[in-house]
Write a structure and sequence with these properties.
The structure is a single chain. The strands form two sheets. This protein has an eight-stranded mixed sheet, with helices on both faces. Strands 7-8 form a two-stranded antiparallel sheet. It has ten helices and ten strands. The chain has a single domain, classed as Rossmann fold, CATH 3.40.50.150. Helices cover 36% and strands 23% of the residues. It is α/β, with parallel strands linked by helices.
Amino acid sequence: MPPTSNEWLDPAAAAPDATARFYDAVAPGYDAQVDGRTDVDNLRLREAFCQRVAAAAGPGASILDFGCGTGIDAAWYAARGHRVHAYDLSPGMMAVLRERCSGEIAAGRITTAAGPLEAMERALGAGDPVAAIAANFAVLNHVQDPGPLLQRLAVHLQPGSALVANVLNPFYGRDMRHGWWWRSALRSLGQGAIRMEGRVTTYRHFIGSLRRAAAPAFAIESVCTADGRSLFGSLGANHLFVQFRRRS
């Protein structure tokens, strides 16, 4: 579906970016893989994350869904009265979102941008900053150095408001049983994150590294698992919820 008047699609979105190409390729089957009927854990994870973001934003407030994927979260927010700015690096993922959320887009409840980060920044333009930013399902783990990205996102967030990120736990107990985790950890010494090679590269950032990267625009307000356990009880959780607070 071609972009409507409230959507942006950057012509540079077709640039040879490995992460974008990966998600373009998996977009048609992404929902079945991540939120399939048998994957109850991911469904609970998504619900807990969306509830946390909605609470951080406040009733009816605007949300930037950063790394929005196929639009499941964006549709959830819009159905509960939020105005959503949905952005994703992958045009393929955005195509699925535009089909899923065509009614919300037509009504102006969801606006979209796809491609390089500049497309999102142009779409947001000089409009009012959003009340919350959501980055679900390890979006920040695709970024080797999240510091510059967090500084750019801060410009579009109201002072005192929250950015909520779902990040991969660098010390997930099940992964630490395997030799590949230890080999990756040893290769990544001193880098602030454990670099994991695969079809797409991810960086499992340490919380201390995220804290330093977030300054001076953000402070980390809380770190917990989806069921509310603190960082010290997180070995059994593959995902952590990190809430950043925008400094005034």
